[in-house]
Write a structure and sequence with these properties.
The chain has 53 residues and is an all-alpha fold. The protein has two helices and no strands. It has helices at 29-38, 47-50. The chain starts with 28 loop residues before the first helix and ends with a helix.
Length: 53
């Protein structure tokens, strides 16, 4: 059983770019990126490091 149809690139319509962004997305991208990077990160304590074997 062949479930896939034959695909010929030269006969098929071209696929458009898969990602669509709003026009204003990159207007304040650097500002929002800097805000995310300067946020204080919570301290992570590993459960495995607390075990005493």
């Amino acid at each position: 059983m062949n479930f896939m149809k034959a695909f010929r690139l030269e006969n098929e319509t071209k696929i458009e770019f898969g990602f669509i962004f709003p026009k204003i997305y990159f207007d304040n991208f650097s500002e929002s990126l800097i805000q995310e990077l300067t946020k204080e990160k919570p301290k992570v304590i590993s459960i495995l490091s607390m075990r005493k074997i």
